[in-house]
């Protein structure tokens, strides 16, 4: 009798080891916003330059500097006949990220918004949700420092 009880116990243990386990609950998909992805995956800090069209000059030279602490410096200088005209316009302060898109807003700077992409930012004239919606807005290219 003892032998049958031991054999039954061993058989049940063996068979229970062969049974499939119940799959673990997986976490629900994370609702990661595009702005969070841009902040963590893009190397967006640095200096960006652009030539913006101008009606009464050749173009406006613009420079945007962003740091990782939420600070910016924006400078505009009109250029006519190859030289600067007037005094540069300078804004500086903090920038904030849009909650739903990779867009930053410069505080204290005429409510300017920039779409953040890899190695460029785009000055927006109207709200957009994706890079494909950007048409003719000025693109600021990231200045690459040579070492």
**Do you know the CATH topology?**
Lipocalin
Structural category is alpha+beta
Strand ordering within the main sheet: 1-2-3-4-5-6-7-8
Distinct helical segment count? 2
| Domain tally | 1
Oligomer: single chain
The count of strands amounts to 8
Textual characterization of the structure:
It is a single chain. With 147 residues, this protein is of the alpha+beta class. It has a single domain, classed as Lipocalin (Beta Barrel), CATH 2.40.128. 17% of the residues lie in helices and 39% in strands. It is built from two helices and eight strands, in the order ααββββββββ. The protein has helices at residues 2-18, 34-41, and strands spanning 46-52, 59-66, 71-80, 83-97, 103-106, 113-117, 120-123, 139-142. An eight-stranded antiparallel β-barrel has the order 1-2-3-4-5-6-7-8. A hairpin with a 2-residue loop joins β3 and β4. It is globular. It starts with a helix and ends in a 5-residue tail after the last strand. Residues 27-31 have low confidence and may be disordered.
């Amino acid at each position: 009798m003892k032998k049958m009880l031991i054999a039954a116990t061993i058989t049940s243990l063996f068979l229970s080891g062969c049974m499939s386990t119940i799959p673990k609950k997986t976490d629900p998909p994370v609702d990661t916003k595009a702005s969070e992805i841009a902040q963590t995956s893009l190397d967006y800090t640095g200096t960006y330059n652009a030539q913006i069209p101008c009606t009464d000059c050749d173009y406006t030279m613009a420079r945007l500097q962003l740091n990782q602490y939420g600070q910016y410096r924006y400078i505009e200088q009109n250029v006519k006949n190859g030289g600067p005209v007037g005094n540069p316009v300078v804004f500086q302060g903090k920038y904030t990220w849009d909650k739903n898109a990779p867009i930053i807003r410069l505080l204290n700077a005429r409510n300017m918004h920039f779409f953040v992409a890899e190695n460029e930012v785009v000055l927006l004239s109207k709200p957009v949700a994706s890079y494909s919606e950007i048409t003719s807005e000025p693109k600021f290219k990231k200045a690459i420092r040579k070492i």
